[in-house]
Amino acid sequence: MKMFRYMTGVASIDVVIDDEYERLIFVVNKGDLGRAIGRGGRKLEMMRKIVRRDLGYAVEVVEYDNDLKSFIRNLLSPARVSEIEFVGEGEGKVAYVKVPEEDLGIAIGKDGRRIRRARLLVRRWFQLGNVKIGSS
Prior knowledge:
Blueprint: H1 2-8, E1 12-18, E2 23-28, H2 33-37, H3 42-55, E3 58-63, H4 68-76, E4 83-87, E5 94-99, H5 104-108, H6 113-126, E6 130-135
Parallel strand pairs: 2-3, 5-6
Antiparallel strand pairs: 1-2, 4-5
Helix pairs in contact: 4-6
């Protein structure tokens, strides 16, 4: 996390190591995503090169939001989320997310990477049981 701050000038509030997809997922405060990425993505690209070279991991950055629906939208971006509905209580609570048919692949991500990231982070930050995606 210190390296992230040093390279981007932004403090991350969390970092998740996803060994399955060989990536580090940094979470930044609301409003800090643009500063963390840098103009034209320069800061993020420089960090990605160093982390890939030294650790063999990819780097992703997501913006935190106290509102669960907004956080899920951030995690699934650039997919357009049309609706989010919650069913259940506590650890068994499930978020059902609807996206336009043409954005379904984007929301899921290559090999399920984006939906896995969403599931990891909403469990960690909101103790949500699962996130499921369907088309609207």
